[in-house]
Design goal:
The complex is a heterodimer. By secondary structure, chain A is mainly α. In chain A, about 75% of the residues lie in helices and about 0% in strands. In chain A, helix 2 packs antiparallel against helix 14 (about 320-330). Helices cover about 75% and strands about 0% of the residues of chain B. In chain B, strands 1-2 form a two-stranded antiparallel ribbon. The longest helix of chain B is centred in the middle third of the chain and has 27 residues, at about 175-200. Chain B has helices spanning about 5-30, 40-55, 60-85, 90-110, 135-150, 155-165, 165-170, 175-200, 215-225, 230-250, 255-280, and strands at about 115, 205. The chains are: A mainly alpha, B mainly alpha. The interface between A and B is large, with 49 and 46 residues.
Chain lengths: ~350, ~290
């Protein structure tokens, strides 16, 4: 068999293909169950998210999804799961909002400062979870998740009381001053934030492929005991990876605040579930850099397309969340098409 | 007075769902299956109990259906982690996500509402002496689990399967069968926990109404070292924190502070117990596990 055929066969047989196809099929069953036409529904998902009206929305959703997916993928590459993305993102967002409101610097510098402050807040909070594991022996999975709730509550408190916009009935801070915003492309909702997140993805790809640090991360993920014998210091690695992860989550929060509606609105960062969608995307790609970008885009399409599907077929958009989870369930169970299906086809050729 | 019988009563009410789910988690842990899908199983129980209770008019059928539905749902973990040897953590995370999506989807397709389903004709569980029968059942379950795990041959075999599956298999005990049983038991208990939450503590269904209680249950399993009485004490701590939070809110503290209280208390307790455990047994090179 020539290499190209073998690679195609490998890709077709991969658990990812199986999981995505199984998800789409089960989704179709759900659609039939609710009396909708699956073809129309999936068409609405695709045209609604990739058509001229939807692509902007897909890219701006994709900014947050990719950012959170990277935040979770980077520690995941070393076998560490950061479940505290919500807390880190929200702290980044509220810190960016405070910086944007009170910084005395000119607007363009304030934007940079707000982004950096948001990243620092997220990084510090994620580092706290790493310290909980390193020093106190609380598993990262649990410490990061439990720390997330007080952070979300704190940001909610700040947005509702001390920083609340006077006279508004909404739980939101005052709007940032004029000019304290990320530049948008044309009149779309896509901002420079997308560029920042894509740059982060490129940096992750480079680190993963070309540097000793990336090699250490991958080795730790594959076999942490072996990497410990090889001299990788686990505690330091956990702390560094969590700091990077938290910084990215904080960046997503800061981008959210520095884009429309240019303020911190309580719940607007956590409600769309970027953290969980990001985790799903990272898991689907087994944290590989390019795969994470592709799967993030796939889930952004699902999320935005879900809204379009709801409009045309009246099927609730929660179906797309069901699809995401089903894909991951199949993937975790490592189901794949049996090899003999492909061998038989080969004989026929 | 701050500490009074009212506080204790509301703590005991807050305790029941956590306790039931955490007992399920403890049984799984003892059988060697790490179950972080408790949250999702509970949520499935919440929705099924409300839906069944509304359509049949009987809260008891709701409880039964919740137990069955959550047990069926737990099969995802059993098949995925035991038979197909998938990653239990990833499966658990996906099960929690799936439950949020599925219950939200069903809420809108079955009841045609978004957010909350609240109907005056929805039958809730009766109260006996201030508690639902499920609360008494949860206390009985602690005793039964404690006796089973430490005295009965099933419990000993279950622990054997969790600690040394190969040795258990050599003795003719099927590890897969015991693991399946443990996961199904956790499903039933989480279903009951969900029913208690949706038909006992309140009588309604809200999207994502478990709100992290399944995760607290996971932590309670760790805190209580997967021993039924330990789990009871850990869950009681959470119940007290939640009840104290409500009380503090009455004294004028913002809701956000009291929302965070149970998680902060749980985390603090986790620090204290792991720190003490570590001092007793210094682990070589400080490797956290």
């Amino acid at each position: 068999m020539n290499p190209f055929l073998r690679r195609t066969r490998g890709a077709l047989r991969s658990p990812v293909t199986f999981s995505v196809l199984a998800g789409v099929l089960i989704g179709a069953l759900f659609l039939v169950g609710t009396g909708a036409d699956p073809v129309t529904a999936y068409e609405a998902v695709l045209t609604g998210s990739l058509g001229a009206d939807g692509i902007g929305s897909t890219l701006s959703t994709g900014t947050s999804v990719l950012g959170m997916a990277l935040a979770l993928a980077i520690p995941l590459r070393a076998g560490l799961i950061n479940l505290g993305g919500d807390g880190q993102m929200v702290l980044g967002g509220i810190t960016a909002a405070v910086t944007g409101l009170y910084s005395p610097l000119p607007a363009p510098l304030t934007v940079v400062l707000a982004l950096l402050a948001g990243m620092a807040a997220g990084a510090a909070y994620a580092a706290l979870a790493a310290l909980c594991e390193n020093r106190l022996g609380v598993p990262l999975l649990v410490s990061s998740l439990l720390l997330s709730y007080p952070a979300v509550s704190l940001a909610s408190y700040l947005a509702r009381y001390p920083l609340k916009e006077p006279g508004s009935s909404l739980p939101q801070t005052r709007a940032l001053p004029d000019g304290v915003a990320l530049p948008a492309f044309g009149d779309s909702t896509v901002t420079v934030g997308l560029v920042l997140v894509v740059l982060a993805a490129a940096a992750y790809w480079f680190t993963d492929k070309r540097t000793a640090f990336g090699y250490e991360i991958r080795m730790t993920g594959l076999n942490s005991r072996f990497s410990a014998y090889a001299g990788v210091e686990r505690e330091g690695l956990t702390l560094r990876l969590m700091s990077i992860s938290g910084a990215l989550a904080g960046l997503v929060g800061a981008i959210g605040v520095l884009s429309f509606p240019y303020r911190f609105v309580d719940g607007s960062l956590t409600a769309p579930g970027y953290t969980w969608t990001g985790l799903t995307a990272a898991l689907l790609a087994t944290a590989a850099p390019i795969g994470t970008v592709v799967s993030s885009f796939f889930f952004a399409v699902l999320q935005v397309g879900g809204l379009a599907m709801e409009r045309t077929t009246e099927v609730p958009r929660e179906l797309t969340q069901v699809l995401q989870a089903i894909v991951i369930v199949f993937l975790a169970a490592r189901l794949r098409f049996p090899g003999r299906w492909f061998d038989r086809r080969k004989e026929a050729v | 007075m701050f500490l009074d019988s009212d506080l204790l009563l509301s703590a005991l009410r807050a305790l029941t769902p956590i306790l039931l789910a955490a007992l399920g988690g403890a049984v799984c842990e003892r059988a060697g299956v790490f179950n972080i899908g408790l949250e999702g199983m509970m949520l499935m129980g919440c929705f099924t109990s409300v839906a069944t209770s509304w359509f049949t008019g009987s809260a008891w059928l709701g409880v039964l259906a919740a137990a069955l539905a959550a047990a069926a749902y737990s099969l995802i973990l059993a098949v995925g982690a035991v038979t197909l040897r998938g990653d239990a953590v990833v499966l658990g995370v996906a099960m929690n996500l799936l439950a949020v999506g599925l219950t939200g989807f069903l809420l809108r397709t079955v009841f045609g509402v978004q957010g909350t389903f609240d109907d005056p004709s929805l039958a809730g569980l009766p109260l006996v002496g201030g508690f639902t029968p499920l609360t008494y059942l949860s206390w009985a379950a602690v005793a039964v689990a404690a006796v089973l795990l430490s005295r009965h041959v099933w419990g000993l075999r279950l622990r054997g399967v969790g600690e040394a599956p190969d040795a258990a298999a050599t003795l003719g005990v099927s590890p897969a069968r015991y693991k399946y049983a443990a996961v199904l038991v956790s499903g039933v208990l989480c279903g009951l926990a969900g029913a208690q939450l949706a038909l006992g503590n309140v009588t309604l269904f809200t999207e994502n109404m478990t709100a992290g209680r399944g995760w607290i249950a996971v932590v309670a399993v760790m805190l209580g070292r997967a021993a039924p009485v330990g789990v009871l004490l850990a869950a009681l701590l959470f119940g007290l924190a939640e009840a104290a939070g409500f009380r503090l809110q009455g004294l004028g503290l913002p809701q956000q502070a009291t929302d965070a209280a149970p998680y902060v208390v749980t985390l603090g307790a986790l620090f204290l117990t792991t720190a003490r455990r570590r001092r007793r047994t210094p682990s070589p090179s400080g490797a956290a596990s």
